C-alpha cells in the first residue's frame, strides 16, 4: 500500500492551555484496517482525536500528520473533512429545528460540494439507512434532540455512512451505551468496513472490540503509545487492567 493510502502520525506533541498532553505519538493507519486506541482516562486519547480534526483548543508543539501527501495539521477542519477524514464525537450535540436529513444534506454539500443532486441525496440516504437497519422516520427527527445515547451514536454512524470518508475516527463511540445499543452501533460500523475505509476506534473499554475486530490495538499511557499488538493485547488488558501496564511502562523508564 502506498503512503497515499495511509494516515501517518509522526512525533505528535500537543498541549492544552500550556500543559503538554501528547508527548510524541507515532501511529500509522492504513485504509482497510481497524485500529483500536485504548488507555486509561486522561492518557490523551481524545486529545489525539480532536487534534487530528483541527480543534483550535489543541496546540501542536511538534510533529506531523501525513495524509495523501499533505500535512493535515496545516489545514483547517473543513479542508480535513474534504480530504476524507471524519470524527464521530463522544458527546454529539443536539440541533433543535434541524432534521437529521437536512443536516446530512448540508454536511454532504459542505464536504463534497454540489456533485450530488437532491434526488441522488435522497437515494443515498435511503440506501445507507437501510444498510444500518434504521427506520425512515429517523431522518425527519431533529438532530439528537430527545435522542437516547444509542440513537445519538447511530446518527453519528449514519453521518459517517453518508459522507463516505476514507479515514474515520470514532471517539469513545461506546461511551454510555447499554449492551443492546452497543451491539446495534457496532453492527453499523461493521456494515461500513471495507478496503476504502480506515478506522481508528478510541475506547476505554475492551467490550466494543467483542463486536468490532481490530487489526491492531494500541495502548496509550501519559500521552504516548507504549504498546501495540493484535486483538490479544485488548484481551490481556481486560484481564490485567491498566494499572499493570502503567507499572510496566514506568518500570522500563517510560
What do these coordinates show?
- α3 (100-112) packs parallel to α5.
- A hairpin with a 2-residue loop joins β1 (6-16) and β2 (19-30).
- This protein has 254 residues and is of the alpha/beta class.
- The chain has one domain: Rossmann fold.
- It contains 8 helices and 12 strands.
CATH superfamily: P-loop containing nucleotide triphosphate hydrolases
Strand order of the largest sheet: 6-9-10-3-11-12
- How big is the Rg? 18 Å
Give the strand tally: 12
Whole-number total of structural domains: 1
Class based on secondary structure composition and strand pairing: alpha/beta
H/E topology pattern:
EEEHEEHEEHHEHEHEEEHH
Strand content: 25-35%
Specify the number of helices. 8
Mean pLDDT: 91
Q: Helicity, in percent?
A: 25-40%
CATH class: Alpha Beta
Overall form = globular
Tell me the CATH topology: Rossmann fold
The CATH architecture classification is 3-Layer(aba) Sandwich
Low-confidence stretches: none
Quick rundown:
The protein has about 250 residues and is an alpha/beta fold. It has helices spanning about 45-55, 75-80, 100-110, 120-130, 150-165, 180-190, 230-240, 240-250, and strands spanning about 5-15, 20-30, 35-40, 60-65, 70, 85-90, 95-100, 140-145, 165-170, 200-205, 215-220, 225-230.
SSE diagram, text form:
Layout: E1 6-16, E2 19-30, E3 34-38, H1 45-53, E4 58-67, E5 70-71, H2 77-82, E6 85-88, E7 95-99, H3 100-112, H4 118-131, E8 142-143, H5 149-163, E9 167-171, H6 179-192, E10 198-203, E11 216-221, E12 224-229, H7 231-240, H8 242-251
Helix pairs in contact: 3-5, 5-6
Amino acid at each position: 500500500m502506498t503512503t497515499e493510502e495511509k494516515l501517518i502520525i509522526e512525533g505528535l506533541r500537543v498541549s492544552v492551555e500550556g500543559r503538554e498532553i501528547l508527548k510524541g505519538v507515532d501511529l500509522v493507519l492504513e485504509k482497510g484496517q481497524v485500529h483500536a486506541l485504548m488507555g486509561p482516562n486522561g492518557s490523551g486519547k481524545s486529545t489525539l482525536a480532536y487534534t487530528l480534526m483541527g480543534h483550535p483548543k489543541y496546540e501542536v508543539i511538534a510533529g506531523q500528520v501525513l495524509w495523501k501527501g499533505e500535512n493535515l495539521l496545516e489545514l483547517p477542519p473543513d479542508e480535513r473533512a474534504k480530504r476524507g477524514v471524519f470524527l464521530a464525537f463522544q458527546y454529539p450535540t443536539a440541533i433543535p429545528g434541524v432534521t437529521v436529513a437536512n443536516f446530512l444534506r448540508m454536511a454532504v454539500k459542505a464536504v463534497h460540494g454540489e456533485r450530488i443532486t437532491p434526488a441522488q441525496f435522497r437515494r443515498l440516504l435511503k440506501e445507507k439507512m437501510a444498510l444500518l437497519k434504521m427506520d425512515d422516520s429517523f431522518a425527519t427527527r431533529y438532530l439528537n434532540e430527545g435522542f437516547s445515547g444509542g440513537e445519538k451514536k447511530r446518527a453519528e454512524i449514519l453521518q459517517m455512512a453518508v459522507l463516505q470518508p476514507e479515514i474515520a475516527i470514532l471517539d469513545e463511540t461506546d461511551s454510555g451505551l447499554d449492551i443492546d445499543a452497543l451491539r446495534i452501533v457496532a453492527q453499523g460500523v461493521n456494515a461500513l468496513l471495507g478496503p476504502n475505509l480506515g478506522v481508528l476506534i478510541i475506547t476505554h473499554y475492551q467490550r466494543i472490540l467483542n463486536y468490532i475486530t481490530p487489526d491492531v490495538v494500541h495502548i496509550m499511557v501519559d500521552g504516548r503509545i507504549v504498546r501495540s499488538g493484535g486483538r490479544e493485547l485488548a484481551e490481556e488488558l481486560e484481564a490485567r487492567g491498566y494499572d499493570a501496564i502503567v507499572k510496566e511502562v514506568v518500570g522500563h523508564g517510560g
